[in-house]
What does this fold into?
Amino acid sequence: MKIWDIERGVAPLSVDGQHTDIIQSKDWSPNGALLATSCKDKKLRLLDPRQQKVASEGEGHQGVKGSRVCWLGKHDKLFSVGFTKGSEREHAIWDPRDISKPLARQTIDSASGVLMPFFDNDTNVLFLAGKGDGNIRYYEIVDDAPYIHYLSEFKSNVPQRGMCMLPKRAVNVSECEIVRVLKLGVKLVEPISFQVPRKSEVFQDDIFPPCFSGEPTLTAEQWLGGQNGEQKLASLERGFVQRERPADFNPSKVEEAKPLSERELREEVERLTNRVSYLEAEIVKRDAKIKELNG
It folds into this structure.
C-alpha cells in the first residue's frame, strides 16, 4: 500500500508485507493518523502508515465471504460487517485501542450479498446496503452499549450492484434531506434521498450541524512530519459555496523508470560486458605507453 504526495508526484511511504491475502476494504481515521483494513485472511488491522507498520490486529469475521470496515467518526470506534462460519451476515463494533475482541456483535440475516456500510457522522446514522438486495437498513450509533439501534429500512424491488454516499454538501437542506446515496442498478444509477419530516421552512440546525467542508486540514509535508488534523467544518445554513483551489498547487510530473524485460536485461548485460572489455584494453594500452616512456 503506497501513500502518494500528489503535488510532488512521489510515494514517500509504502506499507509492505503486512497482509497475507487480498485487502477487501480500508478507511482512514477522522484525523488521518491510522488506516483500518479488512482482509480476506479474516483479520482486521490498524495501520500506522507513517511508521509503515501494523499498529494492532485482531480476528474479524470468520466467514469466507467479503467483509468491510469503516470508522464511526466522532465516536472513535470501528464498525465492520461480514459473515459468520455458518454464512450468516453479521456486524460488529470495535474499540480501536483494543481490536482483539468486539464491543458488540450481532447477526443480521442469512442473505448472501456482501454488505456495504456508510456512516453519516453528522446525524450518527449508519446505512447498510447489501449487494443484490433491494433494501437499505439504517441504524443509530450511540456511545453506550449496545452502541447500535435499528431505526428502519428503505425498500425496493430493484437490486443494487453497488452504492456510494454523497458528501453532506450535496444534500438539499430546504427539504430536510440528511443523506443522499447513489444506487447502481442493472441499467442505471438512481439517487435515493433520506429526509427527516419537518414542516418548518426554517433551517434545521439540529439535523444540519457544521459538516466536513471538503478542504484539507494539513499539507502533505505537515502530515508526513507527524502532524494530525481534525476535519475543517462549514455551515450549510446559507448553502454550500465552493472555495477556490489554492493558487500555489503546482503538481509536477515525475516519470518512474519501468522495469526492463528479460530481452532488454540481456542486451544491457552484453553492452556493459563489451564496455568493460574495451576499458580493460585501454588500460593495457596505457600501461604499455607508460612503460615505453619510462624506458
Notes: The two ends are 66 Å apart (CA to CA). The chain has a mean pLDDT of 91. The helical segments are 220-224, 262-294. Residues 262-294 form the longest helix (33 residues).
